[in-house]
Write a structure and sequence with these properties.
The chain is an alpha/beta fold. The protein contains 12 helices and 16 strands. The chain has a 10-stranded mixed sheet with strand order 1-13-15-16-12-5-11-10-8-9, with helices on both faces. It is globular.
Length: 449
């Protein structure tokens, strides 16, 4: 295995390009990466579109794949909202530059909080995507979802004018959220306590419930296929990818708009996670607070944003001449059945999820040469994941570290610390695990006709 990279929790995979033509498999999650921790890149030729076709390695045998083009699933579009803006290439380049999007919170007075930093989005604009009236009413969670979803559709050449001429009953939406409209919920409770129930806005319930992102995006675009949400904490978006792919495989949809959205950087959200004792308290160096596998790690970093992919059957993508970015090979979901917040120390729930995802994808452990790890900088979680990875990949993961002094001794795999690396990805897996013991693993590979 070429390497393992730590990532933030939840949201979506992004395969994108940079100016010199080298794309990156990056997890565009709820918070940006720690300032100097970057993932691996793989080579491919430049195309005119910002979304480009990935090329598989010539040195490794091709994986066993689904042959039926109606059941093969490809990614044809990407959209995001992040601390680095709403543009995929800008987001990617900021990561390559080693920039951290984590900073001191200024959305509310956090001076009395033990944690005063997060991946807070600033200067967000929904212009061109949400009208002014709705923009003022919506919870940020749904504003991010609508913008990321619409941008993903545009990236896939599925703008509103194109969708009008398509069978929209065959296009579904599955954008999940771990927290939902937390601002709307908090404001509603505050109104109840301070002014009474008659002062609660009629939008309190609709804008609080977790399914509203998928619903609003469908209403906005007229998409009438499968539509719901999944909420499995930090595993949410991977669960959505897995479920959406199965809708396509079963013939229930030809296209699914899929991802995750979160906006919990507010007093209720930050205070709640502090109470869980889950957050890093490195207030003096927030850009270095997320440090997976480091002996000095002390918890994860909150963030916000949205990431959305367009998943499409290969048959449908070819018929409309879509640009294919990468292929989804398979996935799996399991449960630790152990504890609300702590993972199993032996990593059994995680290792079984990885094995099941490879079985679903039709690939062997030897074919995996990139692991996008969950690795959120928690004391127990990071080591449990490493144990699971080593259990599945055996001696293929025994690669020495590259000049890092503070990595846990038990971590003998290459975690790509502190530097970016160019790497030709053959088959990649991405891990996501959430409170409640929810495990999810999805498998992607460069598209091969």
């Amino acid at each position: 295995m070429a390497g393992v990279a730590g990532s933030p929790c939840s949201s979506s995979l992004v395969f994108t390009n940079r100016e010199n033509g080298a794309p990156l498999l990056q997890y565009g999650g709820l918070r940006p990466l720690e300032s100097k921790r970057l993932t691996l890149a793989f080579k491919r030729p430049i195309l005119k579109s910002t979304s480009v076709r990935a090329m598989s390695s010539k040195t490794v045998a091709a994986p066993k794949r689904e042959k039926d083009p109606r059941k093969r699933i490809v990614i044809t579009g990407m959209g995001l909202v992040s601390v680095f803006g709403n543009d995929i290439d800008t987001f990617y380049n900021k990561l390559l530059e080693g920039q951290s999007g984590v900073s001191t919170i200024d959305r509310f007075d956090a001076s009395s909080f033990s944690v005063r930093f997060a991946g807070q989005i600033r200067n967000f604009s929904s212009k061109g995507y949400i009208d002014g009236k709705n923009d003022r009413r919506l919870d940020d969670c749904w504003r991010y979802c609508l913008v990321a979803g619409r941008r993903a559709l545009q990236d896939a050449n599925l703008g509103l004018e194109v969708l009008e001429n398509m069978d929209r009953s065959r296009i579904g939406v599955l954008v999940g959220s771990g927290m939902g409209g937390l601002t709307a919920f908090s404001n509603g409770v505050e109104a109840l306590i301070q002014k009474g129930y008659k002062k609660i806005t009629p939008f309190f319930i609709p804008y609080s419930i977790t399914n509203m992102g998928s619903a609003l995006l469908a209403i906005d675009t007229g998409l009438m296929g499968p539509n719901y949400s999944i909420s499995t904490a930090c595993a949410t978006a991977n669960y959505c990818f897995y479920a959406a792919a199965n809708h396509i495989r079963r013939g229930e949809a030809e296209i699914m708009v899929v991802g995750g959205t979160e906006a919990a950087v507010l007093p209720t959200g930050v205070g709640g996670f502090i109470a869980c004792r889950a957050l890093s308290q490195r207030n003096d160096e927030p850009g270095k607070a997320s440090r997976p596998w480091d002996t000095g790690r002390d918890g994860f970093v909150m963030g916000e944003g949205s990431g959305v992919l367009i998943m499409e059957s290969l048959e449908h993508a070819k018929k409309r001449g879509a640009n294919i970015i990468v292929e989804y090979l398979g996935g799996a979901i399991t449960c630790d059945a152990h504890h609300m917040t702590d993972p199993r120390k032996d990593g059994l729930g995680v290792s079984s999820c990885i094995v099941k995802s490879l079985e679903d994808a039709g690939v062997s452990p030897e074919e995996i040469n990139y692991v996008n790890a969950h690795a959120t900088s928690t004391l127990a979680g990071d080591l449990a994941e490493v144990n699971a990875i080593k259990k599945v990949f055996n001696d293929t993961s025994e690669i020495k570290m590259n000049g890092t002094k503070n990595i846990e001794p038990a971590v003998t795999i290459d975690t790509v610390p502190n530097v970016k690396k160019q790497h030709e990805v053959h088959v990649a897996i991405s891990n996501s695990f959430g409170f409640g013991g929810h495990n999810s693993v999805v498998v992607f590979a460069p598209f091969t006709p």
